[in-house]
Amino acid sequence: MWITVENYKQFTMNYTTLIIGAGPIGIACALACKNAGIDYVVIEKGCLVNSIYNYPLDMTFFSSSERLEIEGIPFICNAPKPKRKEALEYYRRVATSNELNIKVYEEVKKVVKTDEHFIVETSKQSYRASKVVLATGFYDIPNKLNVPGEELNKVHHYYKEAHRYSLQKVVVVGASNSAVDAALEIWRKGGEVTMIVRGKEIGNRVKYWVRPDIENRITEGSITAYFESEIEEITETTVKFRTPNGIKEIENDHVLALIGYKPNFEFLESLGVALSNDGNKYPNYNPQTMESNVPGLYLAGVVCGGLATHEWFIENSRIHAKRIASHIAHGELV
Predict the structure, then answer these.
(1) Is 332 helix (H, G, I), strand (E, B) or coil?
(2) What is the pLDDT of residue 8?
(3) Which pLDDT does position 122 carry in this prediction?
(4) Taking the CA of residue 299 as centre, how many other CA atoms within 13 Å lie in the half-sphere pointing to its CB?
(5) What are the distances in angstroms from CA 192 to CA 58, 150, 257?
């Protein structure tokens, strides 16, 4: 049962700062708080760096390892770009070697603001904190196609590895890094791949060493691609889609709708965070302190970008942690 605001003083789990999310930026916030002498706790609904854990097994980061480092702790990698497994090892070691106070597999259910505190109810217990930091990322909520048949078991919004799609007819929707990586890997493992892309070409943010590969596979006909096209209906055995030359329908076993992800806007709005009306739903915050329009509530990492999820990455949002810790500890700006 939810403990009401009226009896919040009975809580025993009291912290100055409660951080929601144990991804790389949540870990950075925890480390910055610890170094600043701020008592804190991190609440994570999944495993440590849950989003990275759920990335494709063989994913290679766009960034070099030094750009993914936290607080100057070296990220040693033999290759120019680290892979998912190396990132998991790095962030796990940062968390464990620094004995960060992180509680995993504990989901935040509700946050209520009183005059002086936040009361946070989780799946396991309740907390009282003077400050709350949202470092929740955006990987948990996939964008949907919103077409008939999307609820079928053959439709997937996440991709893990290619083996299951061998000898299958697979439609990959999208032309971003995740879609391109999936299309190439599945084709190399013996899948018959068709890409359906809303735009006129492969996305301009696709990794520079991968873009020529996918373009060459399309040019030679190994992978079929329909540009300026959109799915209209998915059935158990086919996919129907609209192209510049009319409606087409092809046989199909699986659909990978890899068209991006978004922050939990409902959760942000439930906390009182104002969102912009320009279509990107940018949350309202002070970029110098990272404090939102709700006093004592801070935003960190990619959640700051709203629907423009390409604007913030680990490497350019690491500084959020120091800004937040400095403002909480001293009221100072970094």
Answers:
(1) coil
(2) 46
(3) 95
(4) 29
(5) 20, 20, 16
Q: List the one residue out of 222, 221, 173 whose CA is nearest residue 199.
A: 173
Q: pLDDT digit string (tens) for 207-246?
A: 899 999 999 999 999 999 999 999 999 999 999 999 999 9
Q: How far is residue 207 CA from its own chain's centroid?
A: 18
**Residue 76 CA, distance from chain mean position:** 24
Helices 177-188 and 211-220: crossing angle in degrees, nearest 10, is 50
Which residue(s) pair with 169 in the sheet? Answer: 192
Backbone phi and psi for residue 94, each to the nearest 5 degrees, phi listed first: -60, -45
Residues of the chain with pLDDT under 50: 1-6, 8-9
Residue 2 pLDDT: 44
**pLDDT for res 276:** 95
Alpha helices in 75-148 (DSSP H): 84-97
Which domains are seen in the chain, by residue range?
A: 5-141+261-330 (3.50.50.60), 144-257 (3.50.50.60)
pTM value? 0.89
**Taking a C-beta distance cutoff of 8 angstroms, is the pair 125, 39 a contact?**
no
Q: Which residues have a Cβ under 8 Å from the Cβ of 34 and sit 6 or more positions away?
A: 40, 98, 100
| pLDDT at position 62 | 86
Q: How far apart are CA 49 and CA 214, in angstroms?
A: 29
Q: Where are the alpha helices (DSSP H) in the chain?
A: 24-35, 50-53, 84-97, 177-188, 211-220, 265-270, 314-317, 319-330
